[in-house]
Amino acid sequence: MNLSFLLPEKKGIPVLMYHKVSNAPGDALNIPMAQFRQQIEWLIAGGYRFLSLSDYHEAIKKPLPTNSKSVLLTFDDGYKNNLEHVYPILKSFNICATIFIVGNTLNNSGQGYENEGDGLKMTLTELKSLDPAVFQIALHGYDHLSFSKLDAAQIKQELEKTIDSFNSSGLEYIKSFAYPYGARPKDAATKQAMFNSMKELGINAAFRIGNSIDPLPVSNNYEINRIDITGFDTIETFKTKLKKGKLKPF
Q1: Range of the domain at 234
Q2: pTM greater than 0.70 (yes/no)
Q3: Domain count of the chain?
């Protein structure tokens, strides 16, 4: 039974999290192209404004304007199918989105992180070819490690390696971070040390998953919620997620 009607609507700017978009069947990470296009066309018809990451950072500093309808589209990992399938759709509609890139893929090292078949990542040359009016680029760790399994020193090292890899690549990017797997330390002291390291390194925001929508102004720039969009979402469940963040009240 669908009990999503029990959930209240959330006021704020929904941040949608995608991974792959391709001709393959839908699953937890992949969204079929026709399904993705349907979502984009629904947002356009509904009068939503698609924010760049830069615009989003400005918008979350202030209360939400009355009747504001904005959304931030984000894509994790930098899959080549984002270039082949997402990029042309966004460009045709003059839409800007954000793509979070894993640092070790910039030199094609991969370190065992998925990088073949449907998991093939964009090359540095391909990333540099992206129009920043369509895709802004941000950080997704260096080795795609779960921060829930690292101590404060290891987290700081991972953040430093991530920034160093981007700086040495010559790639234009924004110093915002998406936690791999959406994971953060459970220990409060370790989490605070991580926030301190991010601030020290000039990282202006960090995104978790959470499947919620943050009220504005955002209270903690390092705990911004995103909504996981999957290939199992019908257009009706997509609409529910956009307004309520999640589908199940319990």
Answers
A1: 15-243
A2: yes
A3: 1
